[in-house]
Amino acid sequence: MKDRDHKLGIDRPISRRDFIGGIGMALSGSLLSCSWAETKAPLDGLPFDPTSADSLATYPPIRTGLRGNHPGSFETAHQLRQGKRWDAAEVEDSGEHYDLVVVGGGLSGLATAWFYRETAPDARILILDNHDDFGGHAKRNEFWHSDKMLLSHGGTINIEDFNQYGDAAHRLIRSLGIDPGRFGEFSDWELYKSLGLKNSIFFAEETFGTDRLVTGQGEPSWREYLAKTPLSRTAQEDIARLYESKTDYLAGLSLEQKQERLRNMSYRDFLLDVVKLQPESLPILQNDSYWAIGIDALPAWVAVTEGAPGTLGLGFTSDSKEPVYFRFPDGNASIARLLVRSMIPAVAPGTSMEDIVTAPFDYSRLDDPDTPLRIRLESTVVDVRHRGDPRTAEEVQITYVRDGQARSVRADRTVLACYNSMIPYLCEELPAAQKLALSQSLKAPLVYTSVLLRNWRAFARLGVRRVECPGSYFTSFRLSDPISIGDYHHARSPEDPIILNSYRIPLAPGLSAQQQWQAGRQDLLSTTFETFERNIREQLGRVLSGGGFDPARDIEAITVNRWPHGYAYGQNPETGQVAYLLDEVAPEKAPWHAARKPFGRIAIANSDAAADAMTEGAIGQAYRAVMDL
Ligand SMILES: Cc1cc2nc3c(=O)[nH]c(=O)nc-3n(C[C@H](O)[C@H](O)[C@H](O)COP(=O)(O)OP(=O)(O)OC[C@H]3O[C@@H](n4cnc5c(N)ncnc54)[C@H](O)[C@@H]3O)c2cc1C
């Protein structure tokens, strides 16, 4: 094992320390293994001295290792769920009073503060979040290679379709200076094409009997592509038919009848029983995940709405407009940074969507008593209650735990922009029916990993940019999207360092979606950074070995963004199953409508309140919560 680990580079000085408690002692590998040590002096304009371990303590985006819901962020919340309560004797009264306290500093919480200030510009607001960085899922992963900044999304990637944003979300995005229509100016989609890099599939020995990377997915035709794979003749025929034909497998039924049938079967059953694929053809599809669930638990009707293979000939058409897509190099973390800078100007210089990307952020300004908006990180809220009868009380008391100490603050009003299923534990005075509705909000787990590579020569030699890995630990990986904006420049040559993004959806096929997500959360809680690291190194080594990739030499840093509470979903109260499509539940029956009702001086936001995993849901619910107050 030692020899093998050495070959993989497990013993190299990259950070695999879990950042529990004091973080300063672990000098990140992204800094150590890069050539900062050779750098003479800190570069002008950097937010920190990258040669110093202190920078890790003061600038969270550069922390590597286990991120997302990082160690230190969730333990207090889990104690609360297990029954711990902080009685008055344990709670220190901070004496602080605010017009508004927001629980949760994700996009919904930040947007809440932004909308509140539209109507009350002088309001004093405190945002409390349990993480060491703001933004929630919209997390920035920042790496440095010598004097070059490399960025990745740690969670939320993009504005998927600006057309889907409601009026309030439109106004917020535009007011921050983001013009989604300008995306073409910043993206260089021709880069990988010009180098002949293609999408590919890696067939792993454990599932397909042999390790084989087959490049040029589906080219020149699926039939010819599949002939190069280790799939059996039967599976090749099946998959080619699935991808190439637009057969109506439910011919003879009306669209309504088709929909009814498709709503009541899984996509896997549709493929086996309706399309008549042979079971031996499924392994290449088994790992396909649609919105964090595999084909066995995904309703076939949802697969239709996603345009999944085998569904295109069924006669359903979409009348949606061409999407208006936008993304920053660090994903929607730049939206979070724009929100914070707009409300606490001292935190970072600049005024535009271009300069936000490289703007140095001074985290010491986030919780400044002299500014009207304060953001207090590493603070888990454990209790929210009215001071007196909720119908007449004039204040709310919010208790949070930071560094093991419980403290209370008071506010005229509060918005809970945190996970809705946690609210019944926080806010015991809510009516029982509302608590039940809140507890029905669901989250799907995901893992997004950012890997800093010294160069991407192996990708160029093999002609690959994105690799699907059915049956493997990471289900896909891809070179980062070539986006350059402001002073930020994406890699142009295979000699340059680059970020590789890899994805894992911890599924447990055979169980219901909710059970799979529960099992996935357990999986994430018990998986160490070493396990993720070993899997990344082994998998990349196997897939890219033909291009000369050496995981020990070529991997410089790894950040694993663990999201056990990821995509938001609601529950269909009639079936007890996941309501993938919101129109399947009448509003008066939707638990998320009952869950988000205001209660006295408390309102409820978060994407959970929309049962919608997308950013527009998080922002739209922030606006609605502010209007509720
Ligand atoms: C991996 C991933 C990728 C995604 N990609 C996209 C995408 O590309 N495009 C898109 O539109 N949407 C995407 N989404 C969805 C999008 O990220 C969310 O809709 C949105 O960011 C959610 O924001 P939020 O503020 O509602 O929740 P969150 O981001 O979860 O923020 C809530 C915050 O509250 C904190 N909190 C919870 N309880 C407490 C407490 N008791 N005390 C203090 N703080 C607390 C949480 O830890 C968190 O920081 C993605 C989601 C995930 C998980």
What's the N-to-C terminus distance?
A: 59 Å
Given the structure, what is the number of helices? Answer: 24
Please describe the biggest sheet, giving its number of strands, its sense, and whether it closes into a barrel: 9 strands, mixed
Give the number of DSSP strands: 20
Which bin fits the share of residues in helices?
Answer: 25-40%
**What characteristic shape results from the CA principal axes?**
globular
Bound molecules: flavin-adenine dinucleotide
Beta-strand percentage range: 15-25%
Structural class: alpha/beta
Radius of gyration, taken over Cα atoms and rounded to an integer in Å: 25 Å
**What value does the average pLDDT take?**
92
Low-confidence stretches: 15-43
Entry summary:
The chain is of the alpha/beta class and 629 residues long. Flavin-adenine dinucleotide is lined by residues 77, 103-109, 128-131, 136-138, 155-158, 160, 380-381, 417-419, 422, 426, 446, 448, 563, 566-567, 606-607, 613-615, 617-618.
Write the SSE topology.
Elements: H1 2-8, H2 29-32, H3 54-58, E1 65-68, H4 75-81, E2 91-103, H5 107-119, E3 125-128, E4 140-145, E5 148-153, H6 167-175, H7 183-186, H8 190-194, E6 198-203, H9 205-208, E7 212-215, H10 222-227, H11 233-244, H12 255-263, H13 267-274, H14 283-286, E8 289-290, E9 293-294, H15 300-305, H16 333-343, E10 373-376, E11 380-386, E12 396-402, E13 405-416, H17 423-426, H18 432-439, E14 442-453, H19 457-462, E15 464-468, E16 476-479, E17 498-504, H20 513-526, H21 529-544, H22 551-554, E18 555-571, E19 578-579, H23 591-595, E20 602-604, H24 615-628
Parallel strand pairs: 1-18, 2-3, 2-13, 3-10, 6-15, 13-20
Antiparallel strand pairs: 4-5, 6-7, 8-9, 11-12, 12-13, 14-17, 14-18, 15-16, 16-17, 18-19
This protein binds flavin-adenine dinucleotide.
